[in-house]
Amino acid sequence: MSDERLLVVSDEVREALDRGRPVVALESTIIAHGLPRPRNLEVAEELEAVVRAGGAVPATIAVLDGRPHVGLDKEQLTRVACEDGLRKLGHRDLAPAIAAGAGGATTVSATAFLAARAGIRVFATGGLGGVHRQWTRSQDESADLHLLAKVRIAVVCAGVKSVLDVPATLQRLETLGVGVLGFRTTEFPGFYLSGSGEPVDWTAGSAAEVAGVLRAQDALGGPPSALVVANPVPVAEQLDPALHDRVLAEALAACARDGVTGQAVTPFLLDHLVRHTDGASLEANVAAVRGNARLAAEIAGAYAA
Ligand code: PSU
Ligand code: MN
After folding, report:
1. ipTM above 0.95 for this complex
2. Whose CA is nearest to atom 15 of ligand 1?
3. Where are the domains of the chain?
């Protein structure tokens, strides 16, 4: 099957790419599995609007009826947000889903891969997958990290959720050779919180500076790898740090007490966080993603200029 027949790139995205106009890829797992309904569809539409307001074309990515789509229309976006039982597809799931004619929401690993294949250089998401706290026992480490070691794309994110092992995740990114650039921060962001307490080696002060790093990557050539642009949620919109620390500790204790393990751990902890912060963790989550979409549009614009 030829490339063009396999990847369905929307007319608007295709035209923008052909003309060298800024394009921002957006993932769909956050819509299908990361946010509650009906807020998820509102956020999906808001993110596209934020990218447009920033002067770029949004390209939300998902697999529909066995075909990877880059750029969704309203009806397709609604399917991703509302269809029951939509699968979560990492990069390794793409081929089986295509062969089976199945659909699914794409994680960071699948989205980054498909976006890069389509020729998109900038991608916005909420948080990256990472190394789980029980990794020494479970070996649970997101495939996001490994895929980002292999594709040339900038991923604008607010760090990784504090339910993960943040220092171990940063160590894996280092080992895998994935660059991490703090945006106006010398600290890796803490997703719900503006900071995680972990340092980053490099800081950019503007979208133009980030675009300069992307151009340097292009000029260097060699094996491709991603650049993680770590963009903190604004302090005014972060979750109250004392509340965060207390509820996370309670959630981890409840998890151990109830014997929750493996894949069930993350949904359990996130659900606990949303319920025991009266939805404040959800608002911080949405604020983080919104800020990332805005910055990604700016970076895409600076890169295209
Ligand atoms: N982090 C979030 N929200 C999300 C995800 C991560 O704050 O929705 C999603 C992303 O799509 C990410 C995926 O790529 O979870 C990682 O899943 P796993 O750990 O199974 O690789
Ligand atoms: Mn996992």
Report:
1. yes
2. 129
3. 1-120
